[in-house]
Target: Homogentisate 1,2-dioxygenase
Amino acid sequence: MSLTYLTGFNNEHESQALPNALPQGQFSPQQCSYGLYAEQFNSTAFTAPRAQNRRTWLYRIRPSALVGKFQPWPQSQWQTAPIRSQGVTPDPLRWDPLPEPTAPTHFIEGMQTVAANGDAATQVGVATHYYHANRSMEDEYFYNADGELLIVPQQNALLAHTEMGRLQVQPGEILVIPRGVKFQIKLVDGPIRGYVCENYGAPLQLPERGPVGANGYANDRDFLYPSAWFEEREGDFKLLCKFAGTLFQADIKHSPLDVVAWVGRSAPYKYDLSRFNAMNTVTYDHPDPSIFTVLTSPSDSEGTANLDFVIFPPRWMVAEHTFRPPWYHRNLMSEFMGLIEGVYDAKEKGFVPGGMSLHNCMTPHGPEADVFEKASNAELAPQRYQDTMAFMFESRYPFIPTDNALSSTALQSDYAHCWHNLPKLFNSTQR
Ligand SMILES: O=C(O)Cc1cc(O)ccc1O
Ligand SMILES: [Fe+2]
Model:
């Protein structure tokens, strides 16, 4: 399917699916063209500073207020912080890909929470989820009042139908859906799976570039927003939502994806991770992974993110007289990782595409024993890391894994063994 997109991160985009549907010179005319209703959508406070303010004006067939009464929708696998878990542990954790559902399952039904931190009610922290879907959402629509969704497909493309239009996203690309935007996820070429970071905090933004200058990392122009598109569809549908940690459903007699025109900065967007302009050392030592930050959700403490979304893309490694893989380390920040494709440099075995790992605050980790041995003795010719894409959801708040994730058959019982045969190399008589 060929979709058209608008380019530029956080621009005030505008788009209309019918000519002259978008009012000119004002947002709220006495009567909108085509008999549309105007609706303001704010995913930041009215009074948020201009640079952070995200709002969109929607011109729609019916206002969002036309919806039935919400009732709880029993769906137990999507959980919300604060999480009370029996199994908190400072041990490093790693999972194989989670088992696929056997029953027909759409994107919201197939969302399983792996870990969460902070408290959604105070707009602090994030949750990490794993999704599977083997069927498209058809008569079900969804929005999340608890946070923004960063979706990282790992298997097969998905098609998002949203209030602002349609976006197709494949493994190697990401999709961000602002808090509150109504959407459906459709299958394109078979069952889908991947990762989600639900961000309860400040919306994701591009990190500063500092002395790197005016270019590099993720470039604004590579972020793609949808063109206006609408459904004029009536029937017996369900609007699902998550609010204050509970999933709800309401009857709705029309498609809520009925926005004919829109203008503003709060809209879903996608980004192709292969566009990331990686910076790295051309001299020596392994820099901190913050050089690979694609998007960040700041917290109230400068430089100490609620969420950093970091990738490990294909790249040249040229550091001289250097141990090139990640060093052994312990970190204030908590690190949740996933692998979209290929092999990750610190872990050649056991961390597989579709798998996950969790190294919480101060949990020591680093290269597995075989990688240490190999990298300590490798000839340091320039080397190209190819066909690989790992990522990290990094947060200042420790991730509390859910009981479901801790009792999953996919949890590896022997992960820490990857370091257990690191030899003692110390020899006080040999420098
Ligand atoms: O632990 C990890 O594998 C992620 C990571 C990668 C890196 O290159 C440096 C630090 C870091 O935490
Ligand atoms: Fe790490």
Q: What stands out?
A: Residues 329, 331, 335, 359, 365 surround fe (ii) ion (ligand 2) (CB under 6 Å).
